[in-house]
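Example for tutorial group B:
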């Protein structure tokens, strides 16, 4: 008996709105557990206003509110300090909800608002989104300026939730490594932390760049692969070919003089 594939429900912009509200509730709960009522109220206020008014600057406002509250608390306590307990659920809940709210609001903005203003100049076209080099019909611009709702899938939200958890765990691990008082060959712990951060960022960029480059090459067509190989061959042989062409030109001009 053939097994029927499991079909996930259709995703809509309402799902991203619910994720934003859930993230706001999670941020307030995390701040309440840590005894930071003012920070939680500030994040809730900024997030609610940004969500209800559909502000495009919501991610920046949320990060500014969180950073300002952290700096204000550090100034009041006369120092930032480092956490003693690693993998505290309250410490994990706040960044997960903050990252989830920011990404969900960005995707919601792409679904509900135009990313680029309309072009008032008429142009010839024969079908939506296709422009003719020469045409008799003139009309308003028909290119899409926002993401279509039909492109939403439930798998996108599932992978979004998994990526949130993995990114937060990676950030918590990096913070735990940085909070250790590293000291080597007389280097101060503060400077050694900067060295570790630089190495982590450089290594992550190189790794991600290599993976994306490999993924792009594996998805190339045959013609694109041949063009890439021709480019590589031309780059390797360019100097030798230039030298050969110069010698051939010199030999030809010398034979003409004789």
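The residue assignment follows.
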């Amino acid at each position: 008996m053939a097994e029927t594939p499991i079909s996930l429900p259709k995703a809509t912009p309402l799902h991203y709105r619910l994720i934003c509200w859930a993230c706001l509730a999670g941020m307030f709960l995390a701040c309440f557990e840590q005894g930071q009522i003012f920070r939680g109220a500030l994040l809730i206020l900024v997030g609610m206003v940004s969500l209800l008014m559909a502000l495009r600057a919501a991610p920046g406002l949320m990060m500014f509110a969180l950073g300002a509250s952290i700096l204000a608390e550090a100034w009041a306590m006369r120092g930032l300090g480092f956490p003693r307990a690693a993998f505290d659920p309250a410490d994990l809940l706040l960044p997960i909800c903050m990252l989830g709210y920011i990404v969900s609001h960005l995707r919601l903005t792409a679904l509900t608002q135009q990313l680029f203003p309309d072009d008032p100049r008429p142009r010839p076209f024969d079908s939506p989104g296709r422009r003719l080099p020469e045409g008799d019909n003139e009309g308003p611009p028909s290119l899409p300026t926002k993401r279509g709702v039909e492109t939403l899938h439930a798998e996108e939200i599932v992978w979004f939730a998994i990526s949130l958890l993995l990114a937060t765990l990676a950030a918590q691990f990096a913070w735990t490594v940085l909070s250790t008082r590293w000291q080597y060959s007389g280097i101060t712990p503060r400077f050694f932390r900067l060295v570790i951060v630089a190495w982590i960022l450089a290594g992550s960029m190189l790794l991600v760049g290599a993976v994306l480059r490999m993924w792009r090459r594996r998805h190339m067509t045959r013609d694109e692969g041949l063009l890439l190989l021709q480019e590589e061959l031309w780059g390797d042989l360019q100097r030798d070919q230039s030298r050969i062409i110069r010698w051939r030109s010199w030999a030809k001009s010398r034979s003409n003089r004789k």
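Confidence is low (pLDDT under 50) at residues 80-86, 126-132, 134-142. Compare this with the pattern of hydrophobic and polar residues in the output above.
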